[in-house]
Amino acid sequence: MSIANTLKRYLDQSCIAYETVPHPFSVSSQLIAEVAHVPGHRLAKGVLLRDDLGYLLAVLPSPLHIVVETLNEQLDRNLELVDEDEIASLFPDCDAGAVPPVGGAYQLEVALEVSLLDEPDIYFEAGDHVELVRVGGTDFQTLLKGARRLCFAC
């Protein structure tokens, strides 16, 4: 598989310069960073959550863990993690567990962990387990322009 069609279309329509970075098959974001020779703090991952108000894609550096309670307090929501079957229905052109952290491509609200804001470039899943997308840090912020910028990971 290559870059997910929905993601590719969104990147192209946004006029974002990007490159793809192939890597050996891996499903763990921290292992992907290692095998792709990418600094883990520059590999963004997406974690899908849901509550009665709808879905939220939390975007954070791969070595960090989302603190759902903190996110709920900051957004005054009651978010919970979404199961793999439900994720697959929202990302039909992606492999299971290879969620691109670009919510706009999939019409999802996004919360962006502020620790990603100062990076010169960002890598993220292309929609499969063998390829990453690399964009400049400023371009990444453009892709996530409507995201809530919060501190919710440790």
From TrEMBL:
<keyword id="KW-0030">Aminoacyl-tRNA synthetase</keyword>
<protein>
    <submittedName>
        <fullName>YbaK/prolyl-tRNA synthetase associated region</fullName>
    </submittedName>
</protein>
<dbReference type="GO" id="GO:0002161">
    <property type="term" value="F:aminoacyl-tRNA deacylase activity"/>
</dbReference>
<dbReference type="GO" id="GO:0004812">
    <property type="term" value="F:aminoacyl-tRNA ligase activity"/>
</dbReference>
<feature type="domain" description="YbaK/aminoacyl-tRNA synthetase-associated">
    <location>
        <begin position="29"/>
        <end position="142"/>
    </location>
</feature>
<dbReference type="Pfam" id="PF04073">
    <property type="entry name" value="tRNA_edit"/>
</dbReference>
<keyword id="KW-0436">Ligase</keyword>
<dbReference type="InterPro" id="IPR036754">
    <property type="entry name" value="YbaK/aa-tRNA-synt-asso_dom_sf"/>
</dbReference>
<dbReference type="InterPro" id="IPR007214">
    <property type="entry name" value="YbaK/aa-tRNA-synth-assoc-dom"/>
</dbReference>
